[in-house]
Amino acid sequence: MLQNIRVVLVNTSHPGNIGGAARAMKNMGLGQLVLVAPHSFPAPEASARASGADDVLANARVVPTLEEALAGCALVLGTSARDRSLPWPMLEPRECGHKTVVAAAGGQPVALVFGREHAGLTNDELQRCHFHVHIPANPDFSSLNLAAAVQVLAYEVRTAWLATQGAPAAGPEPAAPALATMDQMEGFYRHLETTLVEVGFLDPANPRHLMARLRRLFGRSNVDHTEMSILRGILTETQKAVRGEPHKRKEP
Ligand code: SAH
After folding, report:
1. What span, in angstroms and rounded, lies between the C-alpha atoms of 203 and 200?
2. Which of 31, 65, 207, 223 has CA atoms 20 to 30 A from the CA of 76?
3. Segments forming the whole domain that contains residue 215
4. 89 and 7 both lie in a single domain
5. 35 and 157 together in one domain
6. d(CA 185, CA 71)
7. Smallest Cα–Cα separation from 184: which of 227, 217, 123, 121?
8. Atom of ligand 1 nearest to the CA of 120
């Protein structure tokens, strides 16, 4: 089940932090590391700091974009050391551990996303996440070292997981419908944006925060596969209507 949990590090500058994160993960039983465009990897400093977690580094996947790192995920949690302009659903590290374990136990991949050492995650990257997680550190000095932040959340995941191990065997849960994956959601957002421009609701010259607000809305809606098909169908028919193309449903 812990195999369904991936740690995503975006644009890491110092390979030592990649090694430190790998060690923190392995200590807590996590093994899936994804690196989005790291500045330097593989690197001797990463292996040195991993000190024994070389298998996590060897299995690490390097991808060019965050979108690729999140492909297949049903839940994405982004970490942030400070408040951002558009308020987003927030989780405490403890709730983050719990939500991560519940989703991973359901069989769908979960991503914990960490930002750059100097600049964190961009607003665009944070808006791809369902929730933001803030480690409630000293407000006068709230930014943890990257590997230390990975350690805190990996520990919370482990604590939540251990609690499920000790729990008496529960009866079979009714199977929850599979949630739409991040790649399906991204395809939907592209389709939604195009359609909103076509119907004249979204002005590309003055988009304001419309797409970010819609991402926040759909992100907290737990959209499943069937609902995703319905949403895509509505967009397709809307586009046909504005383009004057024939409808799926025949006129009476
Ligand atoms: N100067 C950056 C901080 C980057 S710290 C900024 O102001 O955003 C590098 C990464 O460690 C962050 O992107 C985040 O993933 C994680 N991190 C550090 N401190 C954190 C905190 N208090 N809560 C959550 N994540 C934190």
Report:
1. 7
2. 207
3. 182-243
4. yes
5. yes
6. 10
7. 227
8. 13
**pLDDT tens readout for residues 161-184:** 999 997 666 555 667 788 999 999
Q: Give the residue among 139, 129, 126 at the shortest CA–CA distance from 85.
A: 126
* Whether residue 227 sits in one domain with residue 105: no
pLDDT, residue 169, reads 60
Which residues have any ligand 1 atom within 6 Å of their CB? 79-82, 114-115, 117-121, 133-135, 137, 142-144, 146, 149
Closest residue CA from atom 4 of ligand 1 = 120
How far is 196 from 24, CA to CA, in rounded Å?
44
Parts of the chain with a pLDDT under 70: 167-174, 250-252
Tokens of 249: 């449903």
**Nearest to 32, CA basis, from 58, 52, 51, 71:** 58
Please tell me the pTM assigned to this model: 0.91
pLDDT score, position 83: 74
Chain centre to alpha carbon of residue 166: 28
- Report the alpha-carbon distance of residue 130 to residue 147 in Å, rounded: 22
Number of structural domains in the chain = 2
pLDDT tens-digit map of 150-163: 999 999 999 999 99
**C-alpha closest to that of 75 among 8, 12, 174:** 8
Q: What is the predicted pLDDT for the residue at 252?
A: 57
